[in-house]
């Protein structure tokens, strides 16, 4: 997992060609002009899901991980917390869904806070739970860029 401000994006662009494209997309997109929803950047190899939602209490929610995609999650507006832990061989609570590329886990995790202008990169070994409130629910606008591995 990587957590940083978008001003530091150049530090991470050499990790993977798709991550470079995702970070460039964030830097060069005016999200005020982008409609909510899914937008293809390079077909199914690289796309963004732009969404607005109210953060939620944890209340029994499960962590997720992916096999086919890296998540680059960028907070356009608002603040949220995310749960994160490493996949070290734990068995999922919900088996892998190959169509939607996710599996769910019920594991202990650490909390990170992601503010406006920050991004988190989650690799397949990063089990994560986004959209968590920092107290009372609040509105967040977020771009989730899916980078095919």
Account of the 3D structure:
With 149 residues, the protein is mainly beta. It has a single domain, classed as Jelly Rolls (Sandwich), CATH 2.60.120.370. 8% of the residues lie in helices and 50% in strands. The chain contains one helix and twelve strands. The strands form three sheets. The chain has a six-stranded antiparallel sheet, with helices on one face. A three-stranded antiparallel sheet has the order 4-8-7, with no helix packed on it. Strand 7 and strand 8 form a beta hairpin. The chain is globular and about 40 Å long. The two termini are 15 Å apart. This is YhcH/YjgK/YiaL family protein. InterPro entries: NanQ/TabA/YiaL (IPR004375), NanQ/TabA/YiaL_sf (IPR037012).
The pLDDT mean sits at 97
Question: What CATH first level would be assigned?
Answer: Mainly Beta
Strand arrangement in the largest pleated sheet? 1-10-5-12-3-2
* Second-tier CATH architecture: Sandwich
Principal-axis shape:
globular
Describe what is shown at a glance:
This protein is mainly β.
What is the element layout, followed by pairings?
Blueprint: E1 2-5, H1 17-28, E2 37-42, E3 46-54, E4 63-65, E5 69-77, E6 79-86, E7 94-97, E8 102-105, E9 110-115, E10 118-122, E11 126-132, E12 139-148
Antiparallel strand pairs: 1-10, 2-3, 3-12, 4-8, 5-10, 5-12, 6-9, 6-11, 7-8
